[in-house]
């Protein structure tokens, strides 16, 4: 498989009342064609900012550093026009709240067709036919009759389907899905996840799925990256990371998931709260909340280091965790 | 965008408003302290003269009968006879109304012409020099009374530079527009300030809304994101505000007509009050109130065509 996306040293600074502060720091990961990566972490850990940095959909005066290579082409520093041609066409994005992400005053059909207009050569009739096809593809019944509806005439699940239809209009190679099911109730969540899995298979699309829900990652992704305070603290295949977490934060996340019968619960966070943008220290950001911390953790930041092929963790104590998960097994 | 059903529904809803207007304009005069007949005739009139006018005006009949007659005449387009100039009120009002309407429409147009682009610039340059200057100017405009702004414009552009006439209305349509430019601008400034502040905030909100991000994520050109997605949503609240201000605009027209010596309905109102010309006051109030409610209706329809959630 060939590499689709390769991100390295990605750092994004946002304008806050305290000046420009890094919301995302030194993020590295790669994604192959048709690959799926789950991005997890507590609220504020920088998942959304990471995704938005890829397409540079950031507030004005944000700074992006590092490298984002898309099929070998560098996106950081690419002029807005060139990036725009990529947005929606090659990399598409869907959001958490379909109600607020769909424009309330425009018909669903138009919101699909405007995307087709920018990215394809289809004429008016062709665009309309394709819009019907896309709605049908995402499981909206009688699509030709829903084309002229406004978003408020759709139910929550239908709106998410419509948003997916819009995002997939130009058959992108990568879908960035930022918590696409958080706003939905459980049965609908399942339907949407299955829909995404099916579309990914049929369209041969890669996906980065942001979620709070480890069970969702286990079900929908091959690989996972765990973020804490703007950095990736552990990444690997879902099997590697879930079976043998090498970062205490990952371990904490996994332990806070109730096992067995009720896998779909939100993360109960680990004792304490993550540091805000202004309070990120020299050492390991997780150290104040960490049960494994040593003196070194407070002063030196652990690098994200390979532990096994494809499995990396940023922890000085990663070795001790190995023993621990072996004990547990 | 608008369904015929919605338009019909809104048209039907205006009927109770019109009835209410007729009732209130009727009561305004009847419920004034003192007898309209003696008020009209003034101090020097004899009791006999007052009694005759009283009977002539039908004031000796039961209130409900008086109202019935009044309403019947109004429906037929008869607004009574002016006591000051002995002419049909309808004719006097129709005579004066065009100037006021033209002034108000021009002012509304100028206000939008100023507010929309400037709000756009201010919002896109938020916190920078352009934004600060635009906001500062409008803040000043907002804090000055209409007549004061009018006097300044008159002094500078009419008396000083002589670009515009100092007053009057002119004889041809083009001259009307020329004469009304300064007064309309006077009237427009404060409304423009209100609209621009509202629209600037609304645009800023819309710019950071999820749908704007989604529109950008789809790869749409900036122009489409700004005009189709951002401006359209932002205009919804501004249109509402605009509608709410139409009454104020008409009120401002009264003052402006006085400053610029325009023979409009505002001047007529003031003259009629001085002359205690009750039928004219009543007729004019009625016509202005109806115009305001029609303007409300139009704003509602514009709003509904912008926002499908309204037109349910
Ligand atoms: N526009 C912005 N301006 C300033 N700071 C921001 C902005 N957007 C996000 N941040 C900050 O950046 C950090 C990372 O935010 P981000 O939205 O990426 O978190 P997240 O992991 O997606 O959280 P959640 O799970 O709540 O969506 C947070 O501390 C947030 O407060
Ligand atoms: Mg987020």
Automatic annotation (TrEMBL), chain A:
The keyword ATP-binding applies. It is found in: Cell inner membrane. This is Peptide/nickel transport system ATP-binding protein/oligopeptide transport system ATP-binding protein. InterPro entries: AAA+_ATPase, ABC_Ni/Peptide_Import, ABC_transporter-like_ATP-bd, ABC_transporter-like_CS, Oligopep_ABC_C, P-loop_NTPase. Pfam families: ABC_tran (PF00005), oligo_HPY (PF08352). Keywords: ATP-binding, Cell membrane, Membrane, Nucleotide-binding, Transport. Residues 261-280 are annotated as: Disordered. SUPFAM superfamilies: P-loop containing nucleoside triphosphate hydrolases. It comes from the Bacteria. GO terms for cellular component: plasma membrane. It is a peripheral membrane protein. GO terms for molecular function: ATP binding; ATP hydrolysis activity. Belongs to the ABC transporter superfamily. One of its GO terms (biological process) is peptide transport. Residues 5-254 form the ABC transporter domain. It comes from Arboricoccus pini. SMART domains: AAA.
UniProtKB/TrEMBL annotation, chain B:
Residues 97-299 form the ABC transmembrane type-1 domain. Keywords: Cell membrane, Membrane, Transmembrane, Transmembrane helix, Transport. The chain crosses the membrane at residues 12-32, 101-124, 145-164, 176-196, 235-261, 281-302. The keyword Membrane applies. Gene3D superfamilies: MetI-like (1.10.3720.10). Belongs to the binding-protein-dependent transport system permease family. This is Peptide/nickel transport system permease protein. It comes from Arboricoccus pini.
């Amino acid at each position: 498989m060939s590499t689709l996306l390769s991100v390295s040293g990605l750092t994004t600074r946002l304008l806050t009342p305290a000046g420009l502060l890094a919301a995302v720091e030194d993020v590295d990961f790669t994604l192959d064609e048709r690959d799926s990566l789950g991005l997890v972490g507590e609220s504020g850990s920088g998942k959304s900012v990471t995704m938005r940095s890829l397409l540079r959909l950031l507030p004005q005066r944000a700074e992006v550093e590092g490298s984002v290579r898309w099929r070998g082409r560098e996106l950081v520093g690419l002029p807005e026009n060139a990036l725009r041609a990529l947005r929606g066409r090659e990399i598409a994005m869907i959001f958490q709240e379909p109600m607020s992400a769909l424009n309330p005053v425009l018909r669903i059909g138009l919101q699909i067709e405007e995307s087709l207009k920018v990215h394809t050569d289809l004429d008016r009739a062709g665009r309309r036919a394709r819009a019907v096809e896309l709605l049908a593809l995402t499981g909206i019944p009688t699509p030709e009759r829903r084309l002229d509806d406004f978003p408020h005439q759709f139910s929550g699940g239908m709106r998410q389907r419509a948003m997916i239809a819009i995002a997939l209009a130009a058959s992108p190679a990568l879908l960035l899905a930022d918590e696409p099911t958080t706003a939905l109730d459980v049965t609908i969540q399942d339907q949407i996840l299955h829909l995404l899995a099916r579309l990914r298979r049929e369209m041969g699309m890669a996906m980065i799925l942001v979620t709070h829900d480890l069970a969702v990652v286990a079900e929908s992704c091959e690989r996972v990256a765990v973020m804490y305070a703007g950095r990736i603290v552990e990444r690997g295949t879902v099997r590697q990371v879930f079976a043998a977490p090498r970062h205490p934060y990952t371990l904490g996340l996994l332990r806070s998931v109730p096992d067995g019968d009720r896998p779909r619960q939100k993360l109960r966070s680990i004792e304490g709260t993550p540091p805000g943008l202004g309070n990120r220290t020299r050492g390991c950001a997780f150290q104040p909340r960490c049960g494994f911390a040593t003196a070194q953790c407070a002063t030196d930041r652990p690098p994200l280091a390979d532990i096994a092929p494809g499995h990396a963790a940023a922890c000085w104590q990663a070795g001790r965790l190995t023993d621990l998960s072996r004990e547990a097994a | 965008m608008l369904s015929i059903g919605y338009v019909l529904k809104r048209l039907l809803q205006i009927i109770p408003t019109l009835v209410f207007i007729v009732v209130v304009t009727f009561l305004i005069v009847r419920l004034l302290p003192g007898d309209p007949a003696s008020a009209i005739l003034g101090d020097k009139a004899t009791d006999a003269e007052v009694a005759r006018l009283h009977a002539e005006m039908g004031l000796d009949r039961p209130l409900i009968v008086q109202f019935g007659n009044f309403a019947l005449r109004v429906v037929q387009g008869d607004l009574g006879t002016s006591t000051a100039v002995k002419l049909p009120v309808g004719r006097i009002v129709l005579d004066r109304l065009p100037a006021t309407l033209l002034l108000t429409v021009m002012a509304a147009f100028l206000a939008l012409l100023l507010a929309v682009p400037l709000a756009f610039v201010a919002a896109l340059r938020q916190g920078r020099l352009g934004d600060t200057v635009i906001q500062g100017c409008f803040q000043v405009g907002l804090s000055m009374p209409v007549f004061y702004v009018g006097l300044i414009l008159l002094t500078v552009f009419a008396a000083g530079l002589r670009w515009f006439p100092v007053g009057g209305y002119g004889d041809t349509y083009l001259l009307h527009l020329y004469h009304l430019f300064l007064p309309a601008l006077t009237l427009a400034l404060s409304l423009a300030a209100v609209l621009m502040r509202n629209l600037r905030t609304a645009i800023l909100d819309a710019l950071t809304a999820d749908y704007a991000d989604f529109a950008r994520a789809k790869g749409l050109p900036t122009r489409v994101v700004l005009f189709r997605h951002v401006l359209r949503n932002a205009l919804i609240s501004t249109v509402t505000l605009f509608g709410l201000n139409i009454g104020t605009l008409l009120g401002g027209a009264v003052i402006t007509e006085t400053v610029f010596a325009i023979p409009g309905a505002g001047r007529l109102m003031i003259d009629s009050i001085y002359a205690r010309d009750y039928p004219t006051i009543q007729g004019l109030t009625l016509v202005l109130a109806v115009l305001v409610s029609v303007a409300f209706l139009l704003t509602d329809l514009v709003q509904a065509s912008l926002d499908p959630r309204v037109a349910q």
